Amino acid sequence: MNTSGTGIHISRTEAGAALDAIVMAGEKVREQRGYREASPFLILWGVLWFIANAVTALAAPFAPHMWLSVLVVGTLATVALVVKQSMRAQRDNAYTEAERKLIGRRVSMLGISVTAFFPAMFMVLGPMSAMQVNAFISLFWALAYMAAGAFLGLRLFLTGVATLPAVLIGVLVMPQHYFLWMAFAG
């Protein structure tokens, strides 16, 4: 029944389908925004991971210094990227003040969680070889990508899914070339 006088009739089913399409479009935009925001971090850490693993494979005496350098550079660059993205989101009014505070609190809690997790696990697990430490950290990040992908999008999930067997192949099939393998596979 048309009560608006426009002559346009729309059924409840059609209205529901239109609303579903709007929700799906919003989800797609959110997913693409997540990919846009995540990609600089993936590229940054991918390049640093490649460099550190390649140095470990090809110039082992320099490995400890390289991993420390990668950790410091990566952490500083990550903080800079977070600040840049936060400033852009604020400039673009992408989030309300309450949403910005919530996101900031969540990112901070996540950073604290990851920072606390690794030392605690290494204390519990005890001494490990460099390959075991690398594999453990790599498997953690594979899980993290899969978990993030469950909320942010399939591509991140599949990145974690692909990383997991890559680590296992390196450890179980080619331990003598593990770090070179991980430079490319990771």
Can you walk through the features of this model?
By secondary structure, this protein is mainly α. It contains six helices and no strands. Helix 1 packs antiparallel against helix 2. The chain starts with 11 loop residues before the first helix and ends with a helix.
Query: What is the number of strand segments?
Result: 0
Segments where pLDDT lies below 50 for 5+ residues?
A: none
Specify the oligomeric state.
Answer: single chain
Envelope shape: elongated
| Number of H/I helices | 6
What is the typical, i.e. mean, pLDDT? 88
Structural class: mainly alpha
Give the fraction of residues assigned to helices: over 70%
What is the straight-line distance between the termini? 60 Å
- Tell me what portion of residues adopts beta-strand conformation: under 5%
Cα-atom radius of gyration? 22 Å
Biggest sheet features:
none
| Secondary-structure element series | HHHHHH
Question: What's this model, at a glance?
Answer:
The chain has 186 residues and is mainly alpha-helical. Helix content is 83%, strand content 0%. The protein has helices at residues 12-58, 63-91, 97-125, 130-152, 154-172, 178-185.
Fold topology:
Elements: H1 12-58, H2 63-91, H3 97-125, H4 130-152, H5 154-172, H6 178-185
Keywords:
186 residues; mainly alpha; 83% helix; elongated
